[in-house]
Amino acid sequence: MTEMTPARPADSMPHGLKLFLNRPIGAALMLLAFAVLTRMRDFGNPVAHVDEQYYLLVGDRILHGARLYIDLWDRKPPGLFLLFAGFRLLPGDGFLAYQLVGTACTAATGWLIWLAARRMALGFPAGLAAGAAYILWLPLLSGGSGQSPVFYNLAMTAAAVLTLELPRLAERRAVGAIVVSGAVACLLAGIAIQIKYTPLVEGAFFGLAHLWYLWRARANILIVGLAALVWMTLGLLPTALVVLYFWQGDAAAFDAFWFANFTSITLRRGYPAAKIIGRLAGIGGQLLPLVACAVYAWRKGPKHPALTLTRIWLGFALIAFAMIGAFFDHYALPLVAPLALAAAPAFALRRRAVAAVFAIGAGLFVFHAATNDPGEGDGIRRMARAMAAVDGRECPYVFAGDSSLYHLSGGCIPTAYAFPSSLAYEAERGAIGIDESAEVARILARRPPAIVTMDDPFSPWNAATQAQVSGALARDYRLVMAIPREERHELLYVRRDLRIPPAN
């Protein structure tokens, strides 16, 4: 195999600093500082992304007795909501807590990429650049706060680091070490699967790679078979425990869990081809610098077995990315870790590649920052205070907009389908297991004291439910507040017979 001589820090650098920076703790602190720098803009922002604010809402209400999939519905696995419930045990309203933990997970994942690069003899600068590239590219794909891959990428990258050590272990015929490595890697993948199901694909690769190298280490067939059984069991164990928990409960809870997790996704409507093409073009354009470096490294770089495994890992991550089909930008977040590591040899071979990649990345980051205003969160907090001030015995209703309004206002939630797209947008029509029009009619019949909607939807409206809400607003409500939200406006309406809160 071809190895590369680790690059030396500049000669002008003090010797003590050189020693510190070349140690794991030095790399960890540098990457942590970089993660804070790239993510601090959204610290405390309650509308950093529509998904994670809902995860926090559900996690908070679980702590107050809400039943997942019955009182609050979503199709994500329970582990994700338990994770966000844990964030609510930390001080504050939960937003800063999950964002700080997300920052730590991002830095730790970057450090694991650095570690993998160093073990492939790519040198400190190349490894550091690869880890920093991972950190920089997450916000470009809506991963700058608390999207689920921000957390589970850490587990998957740790499993990958174990997998990349397999060639060395197989050369030593370290059968026992490979068995233990496979057990840990598959368990890590199993934990990630309970945050989102798509890591199942990458987890399958880690298991298959361990089986292949266990065979190459000359393990006998009995050990290979037993190891495969144990690894598969560990990979499925967290999900099996969750299924068992719901199965032992009442039948309604199990049915709700099964439908939400395994059936509803097959009923979701597709998006127009033009929208899908646009999303793929946007993702491809943003990842292009890393893709170019990874291709260059594949053609010109060292033929290290771990790099081959990295590229196969990337291939399996691409399969997982393609499985869902909606192609939102944050669905590409699991690609960033293997892509950054696959690009690391280019950073070692061409120092100019580092400068070019980070210049482009910085430009994209500045553009992203210019088009995403964290100050919008202050407006949503004002709207939440106004909602809380409205007199009325019934629950307010966020038809379209930010579910964080429920959390920030402390109000009750009038429907289990509180994630706004469930009832408001066409993509979910017929996919959530109920008649959306009947549910909206039920909510409106209770005459919510306040209703929140958008002047322009983020996705095509569910025409039937939008017409119901528009009719109710025209008859019984008045507009009291409009807050800018991503080149649109989030609108707060209050029932005409109620006191109108001041817009402060």
Task: Give structural notes.
This protein has 21 helices and 4 strands. It has helices at 15-21, 24-39, 50-63, 78-87, 95-119, 124-140, 148-164, 166-171, 175-193, 199-216, 221-248, 251-263, 273-300, 305-324, 333-349, 351-370, 376-389, 404-409, 421-424, 436-445, 463-476, and strands spanning 397-398, 450-454, 477-485, 488-495. A 4-stranded mixed sheet has the order 1-2-4-3. Residues 1-11 have low confidence and may be disordered.
**Residue share in helix:** 55-70%
Shape: globular
Q: Mind telling me the C-alpha Rg?
A: 25 Å
Major sheet details: 4 strands, mixed
Distance between the termini: 66 Å
Number of beta strands: 4
Given the helix and strand composition, which structural class is it? mainly alpha
Q: Low-confidence parts lasting 5 or more residues at pLDDT below 50? A: 1-11
Order of helices and strands: HHHHHHHHHHHHHHHHHEHHHEHEE
Main β-sheet, spatial strand arrangement: 1-2-4-3
Q: Strand portion, in percent?
A: under 5%
What is the fold's blueprint, element by element?
Elements: H1 15-21, H2 24-39, H3 50-63, H4 78-87, H5 95-119, H6 124-140, H7 148-164, H8 166-171, H9 175-193, H10 199-216, H11 221-248, H12 251-263, H13 273-300, H14 305-324, H15 333-349, H16 351-370, H17 376-389, E1 397-398, H18 404-409, H19 421-424, H20 436-445, E2 450-454, H21 463-476, E3 477-485, E4 488-495
Parallel strand pairs: 1-2
Antiparallel strand pairs: 2-4, 3-4
Feature tags:
4 strands; globular; 4-stranded mixed sheet; mainly alpha; disordered N terminus; 5% strand; 21 helices
Q: How would you sum up this structure in a few lines?
A:
The chain has helices at residues 15-21, 24-39, 50-63, 78-87, 95-119, 124-140, 148-164, 166-171, 175-193, 199-216, 221-248, 251-263, 273-300, 305-324, 333-349, 351-370, 376-389, 404-409, 421-424, 436-445, 463-476; strands spanning 397-398, 450-454, 477-485, 488-495. With 504 residues, it is mainly alpha-helical. A hairpin with a 2-residue loop joins strand 3 and strand 4 (488-495).
